[in-house]
Amino acid sequence: MRYVLLGGVLAVGLAGCGVLNLGKDLQQAKQELQVIEGRVINRAAFNDESAGTVFAVLLDDAPQPAVVGFRVVAGAEPVRFLSEQAPRQLLAFVDHNGDFQLDADEPRVWLKQPQRQALGKPAPSAVNELVITPDALAEAPAVDLKLERLKAHNPRLKNNYLAQVTLNDARFDAAITQQGMWQPLQFLRETGHGLYLLEPWDPKRVPVLLVHGINDSPRTWAALLPAIDRRQFQVVLYHYPSSWQISSNASLLAQAWQDAQLRLGFQRFHLLAHSMGGLLARDFVRQLSAQQASVMGLCQFISLSTPWAGHAAAQQGLEHSPVVAPVWRNLAPNSDFLQALWRFEWPQQVPHTLIASYAGDSVFVAGKSDGVVSLASQLHWPAQEQASEIRLIEATHTGVLTHGQTHAVVRRQLAADCVAR
User: Fold this and answer.
1) 288 by DSSP, 3-state: which?
2) In this predicted model, what pLDDT tens digit does every residue of 104-156 receive, in sequence order?
3) DSSP-assigned states of every residue in 213-228
4) Would you give the distance in Å from CA 288 to the centre of its chain?
5) Using one digit for the tens of pLDDT, what is the confidence trace for 276-289?
6) Does the structure show a pLDDT above 50 at 10?
7) What confidence tier does 419 reach under pLDDT thresholds 50, 70, 90?
8) 35 - beta bridge partners?
9) Per-residue pLDDT tens digits for 395-404
10) DSSP state of 229
11) For residue 373, what pLDDT is reported?
12) How far apart are CA 377 and CA 358, in angstroms?
């Protein structure tokens, strides 16, 4: 039995070519990609003078190492880098003065040969430990993380990090969406994760972060944009390969968002997510909390038609498909991912408006549904318990984005903002 994607979620059908492409792509990823994990322990922050942002930086192994990737480190959680299989170096430092570069008097630790692990292999028993002490001023490569310098040396960052686009951008075409589902490695190489703007950044506007679902793109939000006052709010779009693990896509979003907050200085934001994007968005908040990053700036979360209890078709995919998409392991009911997601206690100060849709019918979904996700999954009891407001809208899975009642709820919730709280 083979599987395709229908309206944003798995359904049984004919997709032989897609499954074959997925198998080849995942096999190639295992052969060509590696994972490098590090845990940064900052013992230099013993007084106010030692305060500053901690960065973990992945470098290539050249005589004058160049930045391959970097992370803002806000807690004790491991930082994880995915890169091509090649020698790498790992460095962490405390940016005391906030200039996004390693200065001579700033504590640092440098691992010239960190442990590496091929993608798909069992996780190493220990991650690379980078312990930063107050007197850790040994020799280290020059590191400059100023955005203009990073963009000058990394075209992908220039094109994907807070770049201004329209919803007609070719990266949001159906062919790229299908690539993100059936050829995630090719998507990562040719398109890559993206955090995009529809207008130039305006510090006076409050960001509204929009997260699409599986087998979808930011273009899906065209139907909901009329409900967002663009004079008051800054729309930010997240784009990702949807067959990749939800937790990995959430991690990349959390890292990019922390970096954007650090560079742009916005104090509050709103979060909206559709379909599987709701699971990604909840995990995004969970990861921010685990990193001890403040989520006080999150005004509210609005989810639309999210399969909070998973999707039965994902379990069927695990049991019957010759090739398993990583995301199916997350979406299967009672998966380890979903159990971890519901062990996370949602921050009480952040209202969650749960919108469920129910005007569909599908032979692939048992019981009442919106044609794609069962109403039972959308109204998973833990989600109801933690929601501040629940709205049932007679709409299909994608029709909920155009429905007048949805727009009314979104307008009202955004108008409340979170200044008063």
Assistant:
1) helix
2) 999 999 999 999 988 877 766 668 999 999 899 989 999 999 999 999 888 88
3) -TT--GGGGGGTGGGS
4) 11
5) 999 999 999 999 88
6) no
7) low
8) 82, 117
9) 999 999 999 9
10) -
11) 95
12) 11
Pick the CATH number of 33-143 from 2.40.50, 2.60.40, 3.90.1070, 1.10.357: 2.60.40
Residue 230 sits at the vertex; the CA angle it makes with 225 and 235, to the nearest 5 degrees, is 65
SS3 state at 290:
helix
To the nearest whole percent, how much of the chain has pLDDT over 70? 90
Amino acid found at 153: H
Q: Hey, do 2-27+153-416 and 33-143 end up sharing a CATH topology, with the first three levels equal?
A: no
Specify the length of the chain in residues.
Answer: 421
Asked if 306 and 275 count as a contact pair (C-beta separation under 8 A), the reply is yes
Q: What is the pLDDT of residues 218-246, one digit of tens each?
A: 999 999 999 999 999 999 999 999 999 99
Render 136-162 in DSSP notation, one character per residue.
Answer: --------B--HHHHHHH-HHHHHHEE
Of residues 209, 183, 200, the one with CA closest to residue 273:
209
Instruction: Give the domain ranges of the chain.
Output: 2-27+153-416, 33-143
DSSP helix/strand/coil, 357: strand
Contacts of 149 (CB under 8 A, 6+ apart): none
Query: In this predicted structure, what is the pLDDT of residue 15?
Result: 53
For 184, counting Cβ atoms within 10 Å of its Cβ (0-12 exposed, 13-18 middle, 19+ buried), the class is: buried
Give the span between the Cα atoms of 168 and 224, in whole angstroms. Answer: 15
Radius of gyration over every alpha carbon of the chain, rounded to an integer in angstroms: 21
pLDDT of 302 above 60: yes
Candidates 3.40.50.1820, 3.30.1300.10, 3.40.640.10, 3.40.50.880; CATH matching 2-27+153-416: 3.40.50.1820
